[in-house]
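Structure tokens
________________
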Amino acid sequence: MMTPDEVDEELRNDFFRQALNVLNESQVPFMVGGAYAFERYTGIARRTKDMDIFTRPQDVRQLLAVLARAGYGTELTDPMWLAKAFYTGYLLDIIFSSGNWLCTVDDLWLEHAVVDEVLGIPVRLCPPEEMIWQKSYIMERERFDGADVAHMIRALGPTIDWRRLLDRMADHKDVLLAHIILYRFAYPFEQDAVPAWVMKELLNDMGLAPAPSGEGERLCRGTLLSRYQYLVDLQEWNYLDARIHVQRSAAA
């Protein structure tokens, strides 16, 4: 006889399988990310109560309409990056950018997606480079994805498309350098996972990148790393919020 936890997990997996079949039949482009892709890339298993579905911004409303016709409840939770679909207590997070609005899902995600299976259903997984890109910015008090980045580098370092990842980081290469330094600290005997040319380029570029565009010089980019921990800079110290400039660029 199955335990209550095993019953709940089987019901949740049935929900996810049905949702993936609905999405596959719709032919709306999507990828699976989150815990399922992370386990595929690192071997680290996490049993979460939701599944992360990634799609391009232009496909979100069509994807929500497909799920709604199949009987799921849907909502556009944040028009900049997040929607949800749910049924009998189970949840799909439908992600088309990131909470800081930087990591928008585009054609390159789909072009480099990894063909695999989730719960026996054929799907495409988010590319590891784009997962590292997104996770690099998650530095909240209650959630810091630095260990996830390190585990992905450890597992995939030689196969990572470092040039594409560097291009993704654009003017924020210092953030990637910080993660690589933490990786080197965590894994002192596995330094070869990061090619020497990557470290050389990042170190050469450190401090040489042009200042980000903005009004004046008091721009705080901390809000790109944490939604809450840099609010004091905005509210009391009169810094400008870097997210405003990201939002303007996205709208342009």
Summary: The chain has three domains: 1-126, 127-210, 219-251. The first helix runs from residue 4 to 26. Residues 219-251 form one domain.
